[in-house]
Amino acid sequence: MNLRVENVSFRYPSGVLALDGVNAEIASGEVVGILGENGAGKTTLVKLFNGLLRPSQGKVWIGDWDTADHSTAALAARVGFLFQNPDDQLFERTVAREVAYGPRNQGASEAQVKRRVAQALKLVGLQAQADSHPYDLPQPQRKLLALAATIAMQTPILVLDEPTIGQDEVGRTTIGHIVNSLHQMGRTLIIITHDVDFCAQHAQRILVMLQGKVHVDGAASEVLIQTKILDEAEVAPPQLVRLAQALKMPAAPLNVEDFVDEYKQWRKKRKK
Amino acid sequence: MIRLKKFSYWYPATEQHALDRITLDIPEGQFLGIVGANGAGKSTLCYALSGFVPHFYNGELEGELSFDNTPMAELDLGKLAGQVGLVFQNPFNQISGARFTVREEIAFGLENLGVPRAEMRDRIEEAMELVNIQELAERSPFSVSGGQQQRIAIASILAMQPRVLVLDEPTSQLDPDGTRDVFAALSKLVSTRKITVIIAEHKLEWLATFCDRVIALANGRLRAEGSPQDVLSSEQMLRLGVGRTQYSEAAARLLRSKQLPVTLEQAKKALQ
Questions:
Q1: How does pLDDT run across B78-91, given as a tens digit for each residue?
Q2: What average pLDDT does this structure show over A179-191?
Q3: Calpha distance B206→A124 (Å, rounded)
Q4: Which residue has the higher pLDDT, B150 or A207?
Q5: Beta carbons of A239 and B89 less than 8 Å apart
Q6: A127 burial class (0-12, 13-18, 19+ CB within 10 angstroms)?
Q7: Residue A84: predicted pLDDT
Q8: How many whole angstroms from its chain centre is CA A65?
C-alpha cells in the first residue's frame, strides 16, 4: 500500500510550525529510515499517517484513502504504530491478551486471533512470557511486546518510533531480524531513529528531516555517505562511512562485510 | 571513595542475585563506564553506588558497600543526597510533577537542600547551560520531548553539585548532538571539579572516548574491567551481549593485533 504526503504543513496549537511543506511518497514494501535531530518533525510527520494528528495544510494519502476522510480507528487497520515509549500502549493483564487486543477489536475470529498472537509472539521471541503480566517484563521486553501487538494487527504499513532505544546488542539484533522478516512479508516499514548504524544495516531508503522539511531523500547507500548534507541536519554518518572517509577510501560501504572487501581492494591498489 | 567488597544484593522477595559478589574500588575523580546486556545488573549497581540500595530499595545485602569508608547503610539519606546524585534511566521517574516550569523543577532539589536563593539562581542557570536547555526554562517539564526531559533530569541533578554523579543510560533518547553535549559536560565536571562520574551506557563509542575505565557486568557479576579500549574491543563483549562498535568489528576481520580499535580515531590509526 502506497503512502503519499502532499505539501503538508502542521502547526501545533502552541504556534510551533513542526512541518513545513513536506512532500514524500513511500512505495509498498519499502523500509524507510527517518533521521533528524530532536525536534526536526519526525514524530509529528508519522503521527499524520494514522490520524493521531491532522495536517494544518496539505493531504496525506494511505493507499486510496485521504486521511481527512477517515477516523483514527479506521486508519489503524492500515497503519500500525509502535510508540517510542511502550508504556503508552500497554494496558492488558497478560502478554497474550495484550497482543490479542488489536486483532480482536478488528473483528478477527477467535481462531484467527489465536494464530496471530502465536505468530507475533514467536517473531519477537516472547512465547514463553505469554501468560506474564506486561509490567513484570523489563522495559526492553515491553518494547518487544508492544511491537508484537503492533505486528498482530497485520497492517500493511508499520511505523516504528525509535525501536532500538534502551535495547542492548541482543535486543537490537532481534529488532533487526524482525524488521528484515516484516520486509520479506512485504510490509512497508517506516523507522524513526537516531540509530544511524541500524538504518545503515536495515533501511533501503533514508529520509532526513531538518526544521520541519525534508532535507534529503534517497537510497540509503547514497544518502548515508553524504557527510556534509547529514552534518547540516545534525545527523552523524554511520561509523563505517566515517572510517572509510577518514581513510580516504574511494567508496564507503554500509556493512562490515562490504567494508572489509572494499578495504582489501583499496590496500591492494595502493601497494601497486 | 566508593568501595564494594564481595558485595551481593537481592531485591525483596527474590531468590536470584541482582548483584553477585562484586569487588570494585572507585577513586575520587574517576570517569567510570558500566556496560552489560539488559538485566546484567547495571541499574542495580547504579542504585547501590548512589545509596538507593539499601536506603530506598530494601532486600538482602552481603559483603561491603561503603562511601568514604563509612558503610552506605549507616549514612543518613539526607546527607547522602547532597553528596551523590542519581539520574534515572527514565526521566518520568525523576521529574517531580510538582513544579510548573523547568526552572522550578531544577530548583526542587536545591530547595530541599536549603540552598540560599541567590546561589540557587546561579546554579540553575549553570546547569541549564551545561546541557543546553536555557530556552526551555519557562516551559512545563511535561510539554517537552523525551530527549529534552532527559536533559532536564540531568540538569536537576547537576545543579545539586554532587561529589559523585551516577547516571543510568542518560542519553538513550538523545540525538548525537545531545549525547555529545552530555558527555562533554560530564567530562568538564570531572576535569574542573574533580567530581566522580559513573555512567551506564550502551553507546560504546562515547564511553571509549570519555571514560578512564570501563567495567562489564553479566548476571550481576563483574566480568571485565580495565581501560575502555581493552574492555570494549574484546571478543568477550559479544558473548556478554554488549556488542562492539563497527570499528572493532571491521578491524577484527582485518587485523591480527590483540588490541582492536573502538573509536574512529583508533580505527583510523590502526588501518591507515
A1: 888 889 999 988 77
A2: 96
A3: 29
A4: A207
A5: no
A6: middle
A7: 82
A8: 21
CA atoms in the 13 A half-sphere facing the CB of A257: 1
**Amino acid identity, position B231:** V
- Please report, as a single letter, which amino acid is at residue A217: D
Closest CA to B64 of B139, B19, B7: B7
Whether B173 contacts chain A with CB within 8 A: yes
Instruction: Convert A204-226 to b/e letters by CB count within 10 Å (16 or more is b).
Output: ebbbbbbebbbbbbeebbebbbb
Backbone phi and psi for residue B174, each to the nearest 5 degrees, phi listed first = -95, 150
Q: Is B85 exposed, middle or buried (0-12, 13-18, 19+ CB in 10 A)?
A: buried
Q: What are the CA-CA distances from residue A175 to residues A140, A147, A170, A181, B5 (Å)? A: 11, 9, 9, 10, 38
Residues in chain A closer than 8 A to B174 (CB atoms) = 38, 194
The cell for B121 is 539562581
Q: How far is CA A168 from CA A4, A174, B175, in A?
A: 34, 10, 17
The secondary structure of residue A238, as a DSSP letter, is P
Q: How many domains does chain B divide into?
A: 1
- Separation between Cα atoms, residue A236 and residue A226, nearest integer Å: 10
Mean pLDDT of A65-74: 95
In chain B, % of residues over pLDDT 70: 100
DSSP A183-223: HHTT-EEEEE-S-HHHHHHH-SEEEEEETTEEEEEEEHHHH
Could you tell me the CATH number of the domain that includes residue B104? 3.40.50.300
What domains can be seen in chain A, in order of their start residue?
3-231 (3.40.50.300), 238-272 (no CATH)
Task: With CB atoms and an 8 Å threshold, state whether B174 touches A194.
Answer: yes
What pLDDT, in 10s, does the model give residues B111-142? 988 899 999 999 999 999 988 899 999 998 88
Listed residue (B272, B264, B231) closest to B34, CA to CA: B231
- Give the structural domain span for B216: 2-271
Edge-to-edge order in the sheet of strand B31-36: B84-87, B164-168, B196-200, B31-36, B213-218, B221-226
Distance CA A145, CA A149 (A): 6
B167: left (phi over 0), alpha (psi -120 to 50) or beta: beta
pLDDT-derived band of residue A253, with 50, 70 and 90 as boundaries? very high
d(CA B39, CA B36): 8
Q: Is B249 on the interface with A (CB under 8 A)?
A: yes
Using the predicted structure, report yes or no on whether residue B145 has a pLDDT greater than 80.
no
Positions of E strands within chain A: 3-11, 17-26, 31-35, 57-62, 65-66, 79-82, 157-161, 188-192, 205-210, 213-219
Mutate to test the interface with A, among B148, B151, B175 (most CBs of A within 10 A): B175
Question: Which value does ipTM take for this structure?
Answer: 0.88
Q: How many CB atoms lie within 10 A of CB B66?
A: 17
CA closest to B251 among chain A residues: A260
> Among all chains, which residue has been given the C-alpha cell 516499514?
A189
Distance between A65 CA and the closest CA of chain B, angstroms: 30
